[in-house]
Amino acid sequence: MTLIGNIDPSWKDMSKYVVHFAKETVGRSAYDNAISILYQRRIIAANAFGAGRHLAPARRSVCFSEVPLHHLKRLADVRGQHGIGFRKEYVVERGGGPILYAYKDTPQAQSVNAMVHAAAHDASSAIWDLAPYVDLPGTYGKSKYLYEWEREWRHVGDLDFSEADPAFLIIPEGLHDAARDFFHAAEVDNVGPSYECPFIDPYWGEDQIAAALLS
Fold this sequence. Notes:
Strand 13, helix 6 (176-189) and strand 14 (199-200) form a beta-alpha-beta unit. The longest helix is centred in the C-terminal third of the chain and has 14 residues, at 176-189. The chain is globular, with a radius of gyration of 18 Å. By secondary structure, it is of the alpha+beta class. It is built from seven helices and 14 strands.
């Protein structure tokens, strides 16, 4: 098993988990997209991210956040209230990991940009293994690309998982009982996966989340 540095329980700024939130898309609610992820047991890498993301060889990725669980509200306010959480080891063992930040116009950003543009017509270049894991925060014209607060992780390509793999699901508390009934019925009728992991409301406090994870 890949080793992740030990995290002292008193370090409230650290997390043992990464989370992926399902967000609203055209014609589909965040709930609809979350159900699709859980039914298919797959998070689809729909978009390219990182350095050179607009160039042809850029690779599509799945995004996660390692925001401490008692701060999930920050993400829920932006993304929605439905998601899925994994232990960090699970993502690392499948080739994913935390991203790096090279601020716009710094020497680091200039170097990364030079490498991806030099390989714009060479999809086999090793830089495309690294590029999805390097973001270039800054102001671009009238828009700002500043998301360091998300403490982002990525996995290149779709992430397939079994119903036993998630550490927890992120579901509004008012839907917990209905979700458990739904998954139990799916198991009994053999029509879909059943998730027995803890459920977490993204607006819960630290103590309530800790209790749920121990249940």
